[in-house]
Design goal:
single chain, alpha/beta, 8 helices, binds S-adenosylmethionine
Length: 209
């Protein structure tokens, strides 16, 4: 079974990718060093759907990259919704802010540049949904930092939890071990209900009780 082919098959059956997100994906492929970091159509559609189904109004994203997931989620928010997104690399702003404008989401999206480990301590208020998608070894730090600011019934999503399948390796490298330990710890955490999906590089959904 070829997972890439199945992903392409599923993408073909989803809501079609918007022209704007297609253009953003293309520009990301052409102008960034690691375009595979972008969420893509299948995961972007899932994020969009989750925001709608969940009725989220206030979202925090950690790790904007070029803004694909940001736009996927923000476009599902009501007019009075808000999405705050944190990114370390200012060199990506020429892409992300252009597409936030093109999508007419600039009033809903606020982007802060800097180290998210410091920025997250300055972010105030309660969130309905948090998407953690930056340095993977910092997942637990971001998680513990933001959990008190997630409402009961709120969602925390964490990307890349399967780390290209390396979490199955018998002898894991350091980075993979950190991700695996995080997964095991979270799955046993009594504060949460957890769901792990083998979508793309692995997406975990945690519902705060
Ligand atoms: C996987 S990409 C995010 C992809 C994006 N969420 C999407 O779905 O299209 C991870 C991003 O996190 C950023 N990042 C890594 N460490 C960071 C940190 N300490 N603070 C802020 N951003 C960070 C990287 O620069 C990169 O753009």
């Amino acid at each position: 079974m070829d997972l890439d082919l199945l992903t392409t098959y599923c993408e073909g059956l989803c809501i079609p990718q918007s022209a704007l997100l297609k253009e953003l994906e293309r520009e990301t492929n052409l102008k960034t060093l690691n375009p595979r970091m972008l969420s893509g159509h299948l995961q972007g559609t899932l994020l969009h759907m989750l925001v709608k189904i969940h009725g989220s109004k206030r979202i925090l994203e950690i790790g904007t990259f070029t803004g694909y997931a940001t736009i996927s989620m923000a476009s599902a928010l009501p007019d009075d919704g808000e999405l705050i997104t944190l990114e370390a690399n200012e060199e990506l702003e020429f892409i992300s802010s252009k597409y936030f404008q093109k999508a007419e989401l600039q009033d809903i999206i606020t982007q802060h540049f800097g180290d998210a480990k410091a920025l997250i301590k300055t972010i105030e208020g309660i969130f309905d949904l948090v998407f953690i998608d930056a340095g993977k070894k910092d997942n637990e730090f971001y998680f513990e930092q933001i959990l008190p600011q997630v409402r009961s019934g709120g969602l925390i999503l964490v990307d890349n939890v399967l780390w290209s399948g390396k979490v199955l390796d018998e002898s894991m490298d350091n980075h993979t071990q950190i991700i695996h330990d995080f997964n095991v710890k979270m799955s046993r955490d009594p504060r949460l209900e957890s769901l792990y999906l083998p979508l793309r590089d692995g997406l975990a959904l945690f519902r705060k009780k």
